[in-house]
Amino acid sequence: ANSTMQQQVNVYRASLLDFPAPTSNPSSDFRYIQDGLLVTRNSKIVDIGSYNNLISSYKSHTISDLRGKLIIPGLIDSHLHFPQTEMLASYGEQLLEWLNNYTFPTEAKFADDDYATKIASIFLHQLVSNGTTTGMVFSTVHKSAADALFNAASKLNMCLIAGKVCMDRHCPVELQDSPALAQQHSAELIESWHGKGRLAYALTPRFAPTSSEQQLAALGELAKQYPDVYIQTHLSENLNEIEWVRQLFPKHRSYLDVYDQYGLVRKGSVFGHCLHLQDEEWRRLKSAQATIAFCPSSNLFLGSGLFELEKARQHGINVSLASDVGAGTSFNMLRTMGDAYKVCQLKHNPLCPLEGLYMMTQGAACNLGLEHTIGNLNTGTDADFVVLDPAFNELSALRTQHLIEERTISAPQDVLFALSMLADERTIFQTYIAGNCVHQVNKELN
Ligand code: GUN
Ligand code: ZN
Fold first, then answer.
1. Across the strands, what pairs with 401?
2. Phi and psi torsions of 375, nearest 5°
3. How far is the CA of 6 from the centre of ligand 2 (A)?
4. Closest protein CA for atom 11 of ligand 1
5. Which of the ligands is closest to the CA of residue 304?
6. Could you tell me if 379 and 18 are in contact, meaning their C-beta atoms sit under 8 angstroms apart?
7. Segment 349-372, tens digit of pLDDT
8. Is 194 helix (H, G, I), strand (E, B) or coil?
9. Domain assignment of residue 337, yes or no
10. What is the spatial distance between Cα 324 and Cα 256, in angstroms, rounded to a whole number?
11. What is the ipTM of this complex?
12. Is-contact 229 194, C-beta < 8 A?
């Protein structure tokens, strides 16, 4: 299929699973159509329903027969680092040493525009081949690297949120901006990219230790000037980090209070990790309608701790799932959900697969105020969706065979759960962005 014709209608037959509305109870408020049709026109979803109900309307159309496969909304990864693609799975140490030994040297390479452009292309390919159609992405300190990423995403017509990292201390000098430069370059990037096509900007102070008070204040001014830009940073990930923040900001009541003081805590602010919060921080995240990015793979990899999802549920705080590549060890959000399940097991609060799916589709979209365009399969939304193959290899075929009857999936939760443990890139049969197939397993598409 391509989009050269003015009215390009495409009809897909598969099992369909999504959450059509915001809910605090994803395990009951899902929509499952075992033998369904999904219809797109140009970049939008225009119809969804059961094959039996809809087929008469689409008799004259060619139908893409995807029976036995599961269509879900395009996956949303709410916190990851594009320049860290190449250093994923680097051995040893916890957060602060890991930043110094691997992260900063790698991010310094992005002063070179050609290099940034090359990695941006690889990064976006990794996203789509893993079924991720939207990311909330940290770039490097270099303005040009953010431009390279936005340029590449706009060519794919992707809904991508990203920002230039701001840091003016406690990192190598070649990676430091200043309060004024951080403000100027962030503002220029907002003007260039925020709201352009499907792109959006996120103000991105790396984390409190690498920003001076002046820099946080400068970014707070921008946040006020641009009330609809997103904000992303890290919060309460590692015990040494937290102690460092306490020493650097002695006047502040808590780690979150540092960001709050400068107007950086609001709806659309996404805080990575949040592993060791004080009660008042939980309450403030709730009252501000801010979002926590739960990064299970990263938190295990860096030995940072176990996120208390149950506590977030009790406080009614927005939680989205995130890979946090390259401290996270996989781009695959299904695998990330598998890691989240294991973390929750250790906390004796199991995570059901539907809640996991919600946190990387509709729930994540709601947290970003984007549920009218992404995160579900509703008519009128952008046609970002993923076709999963439950039988992508010998083992998964064996594991899921009893869950598939007459070429339709009879137990979608069970299939999803098995895939959250077994998935790799072959699980993602196809990825669609704005109605276009941008990835098919074992096939080069342009
Ligand atoms: N805290 C500050 N920067 C980073 C980063 O790049 N990755 C992670 N996991 N935590 C951080
Ligand atoms: Zn991170």
1. none
2. 95, -10
3. 41
4. 234
5. 1
6. no
7. 999 999 999 999 999 999 999 999
8. coil
9. no
10. 20
11. 0.99
12. yes
